[in-house]
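Hi Y.,

Following your request, here is the sequence exactly as I used it, all 274 residues.
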Amino acid sequence: MGNPFNLVKADVKRLVKDKAAYIILIVGVGLSILMTLTLKLLEATLNEDLGGMADTSGMMFAAALGTGLSLGRLGVYIALACSLFTGKDHAYNTVRNKLIAGNSRSRVYLSNLLVNCLLGLAYLVLNALFAVLIGLIAFGIPADMGVLLTRTALAVVPYLGIVAVVTFISMTVRRQAFGIVLNMVLVIVVATIFSSVRTVMLMTEVSRGAEIFFEYNLFTLFDEVLPGALNLMGGSSIPAPAAALTLRALLVPLAYGAAFTLLGIVVFRKADIH
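Below is the corresponding structure, written out as tokens. Let me know if you'd prefer a different format.
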């Protein structure tokens, strides 16, 4: 069956040559920069409305960073790039060629998952880097910079969980266009619905069962972790993540990732590949 890392190396080389991944990254970073500049223009108005009673620069910095890295923005770019990359394996019959070359289906699945994780991490790091740099230029250094960076780092594992779900869909659907549509619906529509319901829940009394569902929901975890949503809910400072939140931000995505990876391998091994 050969060296399993040879397949990963081949997939990484394929990713490096994928123009679509670069285009999506550039568009994403460009939109984040545009949003930051827009917030900068709004800062004077906000400062006037608050009468200088709050750290508007810090609020805007946090809003730009958190919103730019949110599931509804960065998550869309990651899901689209991963869907396109994985979908090409089926669209161009590359999966069949890999199997003919002696690779097991589990190895093919895990190789795509690993490369998608690398892609997702690259998108997260680069978008965060540009968001921080542009934010520093536009708003200066916020008082709670350390907390903002900590919360940004805490989003790494949740995004790997999202990548595992996206890879599951792309590898099992097999039709590239359909996989892209499903993943876009997942990170835009489903995530938005969950987030909206959670927001309403915070203002009303609900059962403990509903609270548990959203506490351990991968898609609403981003609302608690990333700084923008917290900042926009009120207050001029961002609280440091509690130990319970940190633990959930690590364990919940790992559980989702493990479950969808195992399920994906089982389904993919039984799939009829022509």
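The chain has 13 helices and no strands.

Thanks again,
Q.
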